[in-house]
Amino acid sequence: MTLVRIEGVHKTFGQHHVLRGIDMTIKQGEVSVIIGPSGSGKSTLLRCVNKMESISAGRIHVRDELIGYREVNGQLHDLNPRQIAAQRREIGMVFQRFNLFPHKTALQNVMEAPIQVKKIAKSEARRKALELLEQVGLADRAGHYPAQLSGGQQQRVAIARALAMEPELMLFDEPTSALDPELVGDVLQVMKDLAKSGMTMMVVTHEIGFAREVGDTLSFMDGGVVVESGDPREMITNPQHSRTKEFLSRVL
Ligand code: ADP
Ligand code: MG
Questions:
Q1: pLDDT reading at 98 higher than 90
Q2: What is the ipTM of this complex?
Q3: pTM of the model
Q4: Domains in the chain, start-ordered, CATH in brackets?
Q5: How far apart are CA 19 and CA 6, in angstroms?
Q6: Where is the ABC transporter domain (predicted)?
């Protein structure tokens, strides 16, 4: 079953045409890895999928629901903020910078949204949050504040916090790019486990090893288009397009 359908998506910022016709489908349970040079539009694409940015043309569907808009006679009209918030709840996002609440413990960070947004009972939210912290290998850090955690631990708390909303899709925007090299592995392991558990994921990363090992599809973006996409192992070993070849030779 197709979970995410991106069709003919364009995005302009003023005169700047950043996404120039993106088509992408992601099946339920698939891991779609996106690579490409800085400025190619990867973050913008992810931000369009959860309506942090509005699109200039095209359509994005998640589970047959049009994201961010309702369509009347072929025209798109913005959903209201409440409707957009409801759609976003189904989509977890993890950023390069973890943005945890600094004055809350790891546990409180993970419990916050289910209590505030989903109105879940505190005891239930706590039970679930402890389970999630265990899942990301941080059961023993529940009472720590972000400043007392390493970057990799903070990022794993951020992943647990996104999972606490029980999203059906997870977006990762260079989740390990801000980390010291020795902390990258633990975060990638959590993402691998999540993929194995059947989570549908869109992952922007420069970790080619992760793409090869965990990715179901790999897309190479440049200049606001998907230049090439396909089986990660095939594409990494034998890229078809000269721009893909050149990019891979720089990051491998
Ligand atoms: P990537 O994530 O691949 O590095 P981005 O999606 O962040 O690329 O950016 C693609 C292009 O869009 C860049 O040229 C960037 O400057 C531009 N851009 C991104 N966000 C904005 C914005 N809010 N306003 C204007 N330009 C933007
Ligand atoms: Mg980016």
A1: no
A2: 0.98
A3: 0.97
A4: 2-249 (3.40.50.300)
A5: 12
A6: 4-248
